[in-house]
Write a structure and sequence with these properties.
This protein is mainly beta. The chain contains seven helices and 31 strands. The strands form eight sheets. The chain has a four-stranded antiparallel β-sheet, with no helix packed on it. The protein starts with a strand and ends in a 7-residue tail after the last helix.
């Protein structure tokens, strides 16, 4: 088996004695469904998440999108039901929200939708495939929206073994095309093109390369007599080639297209008859890199496309606004996680744009569409389960904390570190907590817990400082002046290490103390406390929505803040059934939040960095214990570069100095209330001034 499009979940499979092309994007198995979070990207022009719906308890994915207007956009895909069977998933954007629209399923086994094409509000086609039982072959699936409901239309399945549809385009009420591939008992895959004549779908003969298998993934129409379909072919030696077909009004013909190594085309879109684009990926010998090609009216040519990260890159969707405004979307592998990829063509070059990544490790976009300049991209993301992902291009608002009256300015020095704990320690919960994206804070406790130790903090300036892209905080410092803030805590005197930071947040109503007048800065902070602190500091006032976690119901003290951050993807939970104390409770099988678990430095770095919208792509090793493949590397380095967090000198017990004398970050050390206050204040209110 050869894997293609790792970030997009598409594979090329070798079956039997022949190389068979099977470009199947099945939803991943998962355990629970959360509402779609908002974008964690930094502010300015870019792709921001619009909350989308999920159905069932697992495996939610969107594979296709088609925009009619700013108030009508369709997205299709699949989800896994409680029996693990894939079912059709169709959602519609009404101008303010994504809503699931009921859609049919055939038989009792898998049904998956791969593409959608909307011509009018009463003429929308969605295509994919289904099987009637787990042992039966796949058949083509075509669904039609008539303005009132979705219904199945009979389509052809010429193959005796498998039949798949992956692309669709609607030209008129009596003219539409669907493309894919099929196989017979010999497992030799052949291109499949079907045409709608207003009454039924009919197979239209399409060519296949000599001594090669082939399949189609995308289709676009300039006119009834000018249609392009793209995909890939493979020879018996498992060499892969781009494959392009052109419909001239009477027949399909193969048109030569270039390759840089093993290549595949996944999507096609047009500006005009002499300006057609196709995107996909190529294996350059070491990894897969993005591929874009353009038809100029006489030939296809490869257009140089940048690649990102250290792993595979792939493009799976195209959205054309004009000849100088084209977007291609997909995903890329950093080596530790899969991130969404959105690149823009300005008429001369492809450049990377901002796109959101709400998932812990798996984020990808697989399709894009535009209508009247309204740009959309869809895909999926994953933390503890696979969720639908919808992103819309526009201006991402900056986080602006509410201004609070201030008096005499007091300059707060830039943080050199936030840790006072010794070497990294783990919690008593499973080790997965240490690498989860969820931010940890502690619910209110009655007994102060003093710091376990103190350490000399240094600004991390080892030799061989890596290349760290500048992080930009999206917060805005409050500058209003008024009556002096009178908030004080008996255990936080003026000369306390964290006095300025605690007072900065307390005077803004972001944090509070205990009924006995203490703040307890040495207490380790819990996940629920961090949720409240960061939500307030980032001025997130979203509707918390319905219950997400089994252990955080609407009566819970921190329900509002936990739900707000969770729905934006800034904090996450743990699947039910992971430990005996957290059983699954049907029918919802909600995950658990673990409100009283302590937060680690690494976890806190991620939630603060994401909530503040920090950007930049760091490279190189800055901390001995935070290599580039570390699960929290990206967020730790973003905060380090901003001066918000730092590390400890090497040489302590169990922390030997390396050849560059790099410091240690201690990403798994728990965070105290005082330390968290410093991190949050310096991130959202740099040089915080309190009266």
């Amino acid at each position: 088996m050869r894997k293609y499009f790792v970030a997009l979940g598409i594979s090329l499979l070798a079956v039997g004695m022949a190389a068979c092309l099977a470009l199947i994007a099945h939803p991943a198995s998962a355990v629970e469904t959360l509402s779609q979070p908002a974008s964690p990207t930094n502010c300015g022009p870019g792709w921001a998440v619009e909350p989308s719906a999920n159905s069932g308890t697992a495996g939610n994915i969107l594979n296709g999108v088609s925009a009619l207007s700013s108030t009508e956009v369709w997205a299709v895909g699949a989800y896994s039901n409680t029996s693990g069977v894939s079912q059709t998933l169709i959602e519609r954007w009404d101008g303010s929200a994504w809503n699931i629209v009921p859609s049919p399923n055939v038989g009792t086994s898998d049904n998956l939708l791969q593409a959608v094409s909307a011509r009018t509000s009463s003429d929308v086609w969605a295509v994919g495939f289904y099987r009637t039982s787990s042992a039966s072959p796949y058949q083509t699936l075509t669904l039609h929206w008539d303005g009132t409901q979705w219904s199945q239309a009979t389509s052809a399945s010429p193959g005796s073994a498998e039949n798949y549809l992956y692309g669709v385009v609607t030209i008129s009420a009596t003219d539409a095309w669907a493309v894919g591939y099929y196989s017979n008992s010999t497992n030799i895959y052949q291109t499949l093109t079907e045409r709608w004549n207003g009454t039924q779908w009919n197979v239209v003969s399409s060519p296949n390369p000599f001594l090669r298998v082939a399949g189609l993934r995308g289709v676009t129409a300039i006119a009834p007599n000018d249609v392009w379909a793209v995909g890939a072919s493979a020879d018996l030696s498992l060499n892969y080639y781009t494959y392009t077909l052109h419909w001239t009004g009477t027949s399909w013909s193969e048109v030569s297209s270039p390759n840089n190594g093993d290549c595949l085309l996944a999507a096609v879109a047009n500006v005009a008859a002499n300006n057609v684009w196709a995107v996909g990926a190529c294996n350059d010998g070491t990894r897969f890199v993005p591929l874009s090609e353009r038809w100029n009216g006489s030939a296809w040519a490869i257009i140089p496309t940048p690649s990102f990260g250290t792993g595979d890159n792939a493009l799976g969707g195209l959205a054309v606004v004009s000849a100088t405004d084209i977007w291609a979307v997909g995903g890329y592998d950093t080596g530790t996680e899969l991130l969404t990829l959105a690149i823009h063509w300005d008429g001369a070059n492809w450049t990377q744009g901002k796109s959101a990544n709400p998932g812990l490790t798996d984020n990808s976009l697989v399709a894009a569409s535009t209508a009247a300049g309204d740009l959309w991209a869809v895909g999926s993301y994953g933390d503890t389960s696979q969720q639908t992902l919808t992103e819309r291009y526009g201006t991402i608002p900056c986080i602006t904390p509410t201004a609070v009256p201030t008096g005499t300015a007091t300059t707060v020095p830039v943080a050199t570190s936030t840790a006072t704990s010794p070497a990294a320690t783990s919690t008593s919960l499973p080790t997965s907590i240490a690498t989860n994206t969820a931010i940890v804070t502690v619910a209110v406790t009655t007994t102060p817990v003093p710091p376990t130790a103190t350490g000399t903090v240094i600004a991390a300036t080892p030799t061989g400082t890596p290349n760290v892209a500048t992080s930009t905080a999206t917060s805005v410092q409050a500058t209003a002046t008024s009556t002096a803030c009178a908030i004080s805590f008996s255990d936080v005197p003026n000369d306390h290490t964290f006095y300025s930071f605690i007072r900065c947040l307390a005077c803004r109503g972001i944090i509070s103390g205990y009924s006995d007048g203490t703040f307890r800065p040495g207490n380790e902070i819990t996940r629920s406390q961090i949720a409240k602190m960061v939500s307030n500091a980032a001025n997130i006032n979203d509707d918390p929505g319905e219950q997400i976690y089994e252990d955080v119901d609407p009566t819970s003290t921190f329900y509002v803040w936990i739900n707000r951050l969770s729905r934006r993807g800034y904090i996450g939970g743990y699947p039910c059934g992971t430990i005996p104390e957290e059983p699954c409770n049907p029918p919802d099988n909600r995950p658990y939040f673990r409100s009283f678990a302590n937060a680690t430095r690494g976890q806190l770095a991620k939630i603060v960095s994401n909530a503040a919208g920090l950007g930049g792509t760091p490279t190189g090793i800055f901390y001995t214990d935070v290599p580039e493949e570390h699960p929290f590397y990206l967020w730790i380095m973003r905060l380090t570069n901003l001066g918000v967090m730092s590390g400890y000198p090497c040489g302590a017990e169990n922390e030997p100095c390396d050849d560059a004398n790099r410091p240690y970050f201690r990403p798994f050390a728990n965070v105290t209330r005082g330390q968290a206050s410093k991190i949050v204040a310096n991130t959202f209110y740099p040089n915080c001034q309190t009266p």
